[in-house]
Amino acid sequence: METLNQTLTSAATVNGFYKPCLKSSPPVVIYQRRHKLIKASSAAAVEQQTHKRVALLRIGTRGSPLALAQAYETREKLMASSTELAEDGAIEIVVIKTTGDKILSQPLADIGGKGLFTKEIDEALLNSEIDIAVHSMKDVPTYLPDKTILPCNLPREDVRDAFISLNATSLADLPPGSVVGTASLRRKSQLLHRYPSLSVLENFRGNVQTRLKKLNDGVVVATLLALAGLKRLSMTEHVSSILSIDDMLPAVAQGAIGIACRSDDDKMANYIAKLNHEETRLAVACERAFLLTLDGSCRTPIAGYACRDEDGNCLFRGLVASPDGTKVLETSRKGLYAYDDMISMGKDAGEELLSRAGPGFFDS
Predict the structure, then answer these.
(1) Which residues, 6+ apart, have CB-to-CB distance to 210 below 8 Å?
(2) Residue 225, CA atoms < 13 Å, CB-side half-sphere
(3) 173 labelled catalytic
(4) CA 315 to CA 308: how far, in whole Å?
(5) Which has the minimum average pLDDT: 11-15, 208-212, 223-227?
(6) Among 139-143, 248-252, 338-342, where is mean pLDDT lowest?
(7) What residues contact residue 262 under an 8 Å CB cut-off, 6+ apart?
(8) Contacts of 10 (CB under 8 A, 6+ apart)
(9) pTM of the shown model
């Protein structure tokens, strides 16, 4: 396990991925939906609020450890890209609790879908309570709110899923009847398609730490988590094995961070434009075009992944499945690694799978 962790850490470094240092994080301001200050990260931070300069840029984020790691990564990149943002107190991180964070007892689809992790942050952005919003792109609905834009994606992390268990090294090692925890219909359907003898505990929700605790408490014998999140949290020591793209096609935009701002805020748009990683932005756009065509939601097992192949072209793979995993449809496209071509590939792949699936496919 130590060797695997060292390998993952090394790969992240070689590929230039940033690992946030949570210990040196700035004071974090936390707001309720009534938009009033309820606490700061420490008593000293509260005192500092009175004396420090007004922030030039306020980053809105959820409050989970992973969301904060992504906000700190964004902060560090902004500081490195602008001398004025590098000054002390120039950037403030504002935590906003979303409905999806508050309601953990129900599946996401039953309480409104993925927009639950972005709605309150989007509202704060539109109300000028924050200046930019940092999102996990796989949580962002295919339609952005009016008067907002999302022109920036940071360099993508590893898109694969990780298998985690206390007593098995892979899914194939699990005996029949073993219970695997996941709230993702995408993971559930692909898992049951390959290993129908396993059982899935649905609504296995919570942040990474919460799900690992449930695993340690014996609620399930294994779980699947995005490797990107484990890397950003420096928690890859928990990984038992990594699932290949062939074994588990990732979620649309998995491993990608998106940064949004108001459409009329040229200053913020210029700040975040400096951080954009165009290869990631194009891949995410291709995948989201596929998702939009399928009208995907949290009730729909959909997977999609676009990448640059060895020839520099775009290779896209898409998948839809019945929730019980008995039916899986896959397709692929190859073309130029350019925006218009990649949008067309995503849409065309989605239209093909819609046609092949037919009515009632997702009701299984």
Answers:
(1) none
(2) 28
(3) no
(4) 6
(5) 11-15
(6) 139-143
(7) 125, 126, 128, 147, 148, 149, 268
(8) none
(9) 0.83
Tell me the pLDDT tens digit for each residue of 305-358: 999 999 999 999 999 999 899 999 999 999 999 999 999 999 999 999 999 998
- One-letter amino acid identity for 310? E
Is the pLDDT score of 187 beyond 70? yes
User: What is the token pair recorded at 133?
Assistant: 């919003």
Structure tokens at 226: 């995005």
How many angstroms separate the Cα of 362 from the Cα of each of 240, 262, 287?
31, 36, 20
- Local structure of 182: helix, strand or coil: coil
**Band of pLDDT at residue 364, cut at 50, 70 and 90:** low
Residue of 101, 122, 131, 139 with catalytic role: 139
CA-to-CA distance for 169 and 123, rounded, in angstroms?
43
* Both tokens assigned to 162: 């990780």
- What is the spatial distance between Cα 242 and Cα 141, in angstroms, rounded to a whole number? 27
Q: What is the DSSP letter of 235?
A: -
Residue 248 in tokens: 């588990």
Tokens of 307: 């990448």
